[in-house]
Write a structure and sequence with these properties.
By secondary structure, this protein is mostly helical. α1 runs antiparallel to α2 and α3 runs antiparallel to α4. It is flat. The N and C termini lie far apart (75 Å).
Length: 150
């Protein structure tokens, strides 16, 4: 009697090829690593937001300095820049500075925007889509008046 593959019994997980078992174990380790980083960043962000304990938030971010790098996989780069922005906020809170009024604020914002656009295609897609829509709407006009309320 001939069995069809759809009616065959499911494979025993203990009999899976070794490469599949290794991949699952690596994925599980990556998931735990990522979740640990996210949990620490979230805890530090909550402390910065509440303003209760900026020194404890600084210690969490200092530990993350040893784990994160601006070079590597997209998750690592995004987490690194998120950590950097939290450190900047803590620095401004501890020193009673307004982060918007600092002289290097514009440079940091441009750098953060550039870094984020390298990590995520969302910013590039949004810019392209917005520019494309403007070009289509303004087709045939020779002058445009822009009012910036931001």
């Amino acid at each position: 009697m001939h069995k069809t593959p759809f009616l065959a019994s499911p494979p025993n997980p203990l009999q899976l090829p070794l490469s599949i078992k290794k991949t699952s174990a690596i994925d599980e380790l990556d998931h735990h690593y990522h979740q640990g980083i996210i949990d620490q960043l979230f805890k530090a962000a909550e402390m910065v937001q509440s303003g209760n304990n900026p020194l404890l938030a600084q210690s969490i971010l200092a530990r993350l300095n040893h784990q994160l790098s601006p070079i590597g996989k997209p998750f690592d780069r995004a987490a690194f820049y998120f950590k950097e922005s939290l450190q900047l906020l803590i620095h401004s809170v501890v020193n009673n500075m307004n982060p918007i009024a600092s002289p290097f604020s514009l440079i940091f914002k441009i750098g953060a925007y550039k870094s984020f656009s390298e990590v995520s295609p969302l910013v590039q897609f949004t810019n392209f889509t917005c520019n494309q829509a403007l070009l289509e709407v303004l087709d045939g006009f020779d002058q445009v008046h822009i009012v910036d309320r931001g």
